[in-house]
Amino acid sequence: MLEPSGGGGVRGGPRAALVLATVGFFGGFAGVSVFGPLVPKFVQAMHLSPLEGGLLAAIANLTGSLLRIPFGAWVDAIGGKRPFLILLALALTGILGTAALVDVAYPARLGGLYPVLLLLGLLSGAGIATFSVGIGQVSYWFPRSQQGGPLGIYAGIGNLGPGLFAGILPVLVIRWGMVPAYLAWAGFLAIILLIYALWQHDAPSFQLAARGERVTAARVAAYGQELLPVGSAREGLERAARRPATWALVTLYFTSFGGFLALTAWLPSFWHAAYHLPLETAGLYTLVYSVLTSLVRVPGGVLADRLSIRYALTVNLLVIGVGATVVMLAGSAGIALGGTVVLAVGMGLQNAIVFKLAPRYVPDAMGGAAGWVGGLGALGGFLIPPLMGYLAGSRGGGHPYQMSFAVFLVLVLLNLGVVVWLGRLAPPAPGEEAGTGRRAAGGEWAPGGSGGPAPAGKGTDYGRY
């Protein structure tokens, strides 16, 4: 419990909030892999095309992306705990429903149930949307000058979920069967939901507002909170949407994080179809990519506090382009694996930098910015796999699946232009309203009202662009 000298303490603290948000995100984010590792089994049982298989692999990312927008913005109004719990509960429902459907219909009676599978994938994907909720939650607990490390830890460790489940799920299926494997997953998620519900607390401003107390910048600064929310989900989204930098960050995140989601869902099918690897090996190779991308994000968040971000963004994009090229030209699974490792490094570093820039460019609507960037950026996880599947299904020759990685070369070229554009968008100075050059008024917040960024003199070291 935190308590300043003036009394009236709040529950929880930055470290506990970070740990619990990370654990919750880890469990919810695993929904990326609800179908991906087992798509070859569903493709075989239901005679699906590469495009249909790609859509099934990616379907969880649709809700996981779009729900990030309203739920991320909702954090500005009420804090992160309630939105987080709702998303985890929806994901748990989807996974339990998948286990029930597989128990009743797999494999012989799945014909005609493809839409039902997609619906269950949509529910399971709700847990993925916890990302933007946790971003806002963690950001409000930490001052801006110290957010790179905590956000890198939150996203990096949380991002391990899909890769670990992509590697473990096929093994559990082989040893236990599909239904027990999905039920074990549901039990794990239920435990995480319970832990989060019991011990997580919102940032000080939300706790004080919930008690009907006056919330000021000076009051919450005594607890270490620097950012103040705008107090309305709609206002947070509108403020963030008015910032050109928000849309630049969306584009960058579409490639790096959307690409990460896409490949985590697509790679099991890629390894199986392109190189005829067994599902266990395909899951292991996917695990290598996903875990490395996630772990790189942790030091990437720390480096984002220290590096010239413009040059880091450019280098990361070039690394992604090199990795995609290696996979496209690979003559063996080993070389292709090396290419995905290069992709993992570039995407992991890029993911860390993007959300370091979000509180810098949109300090007065962090939840709204996290919603737009996390939601529309992550939509790449839904859009890219079917596009890759379309390329794989429409191309002739001996390497159609390898050439599907050309999608990332196009995205890299687009993003290099965005980096130049972002460099011309000056972030607001501390104490000014984003995009206006005016000193923020008030310094006070209450639900439904409008707040401002932190006072001048605090959190001024954001890293150089």
UniProtKB/TrEMBL annotation:
Domain Major facilitator superfamily (MFS) profile: 17-427
Single GO MF annotation: nitrate transmembrane transporter activity
Protein's cellular compartments: Cell membrane
Biased amino acid composition, Gly residues: 445-454
Cellular component, GO annotation: plasma membrane
InterPro entries listed in its UniProt record: MFS, MFS_dom, MFS_trans_sf, NO3_transporter
PANTHER family listed in its UniProt record: HIGH-AFFINITY NITRATE TRANSPORTER 2.3
Record protein name field: Nitrate/nitrite transporter
Species annotation: Candidatus Hydrogenisulfobacillus filiaventi
Source species taxonomy: Bacteria, Bacillati, Bacillota, Clostridia, Eubacteriales
